[in-house]
Amino acid sequence: MSIHATEPIVHPTRDELELGAVLHALSDPVRLRIVVELARSEGEFTCGSFALPVTKSTCTHHFKVLRESGLIAQRSQGTTRLNKLRRTDVDARFPGLLETVLQAAEAAGADAAAEAAGAAGAAKEAGAGPATTEHKLKAAAAGAAAQ
Questions:
Q1: Are strands 72-77 and 80-85 parallel, antiparallel or unpaired?
Q2: How far apart are CA 94 and CA 38, in angstroms?
Q3: Which residues pair with 73 in a beta bridge?
């Protein structure tokens, strides 16, 4: 019988939250979509409960970026990780930032965010590099705004 040591999940403290890291985490449409969905409810959700247009490994990366920026808290439960938005900590450190971002995301519409995230996933699957992906994201956002 082998025992696997699990690495502890490390989160920055409230005072360690950095504006640049938070803004970087929110700049990706997939991560923004995760934050918006977590903000809509008070519960904890597994990584797999989000319908994201990315591979499992990419999904893991997005949750890691969100955790390391301090936007979400994760805890292990069995073989899964439960995720919760750290709204209180983010609001205390950067008053009004999260609410402003959530309102802007709402104004842009969930469909635009989903379309942009889908364009990023499709571009990456087609082997596009970051510049091509960024171009497709901008085109998808412009098309959604025009509608």
A1: antiparallel
A2: 18
A3: 84
- Residue 21 in contact with residue 65, Cβ under 8 Å? no
- Model confidence band, residue 134 (pLDDT cutoffs 50, 70, 90): very low
Q: Answer for the pair 22, 69: CB distance below 8 angstroms, yes or no.
A: yes
Between β-strands 45-46 and 72-77, what pairing exists: parallel, antiparallel or unpaired?
unpaired
CB 70 within 8 A of CB 90: yes
Per-residue confidence (pLDDT) for residue 141, from 0 to 100? 53
* Alpha carbons 28 and 10: distance in angstroms, whole number: 22
For residue 34, which of 109, 90, 113 has the smallest C-alpha distance?
Answer: 113
**Position 84 pLDDT exceeds 50:** yes
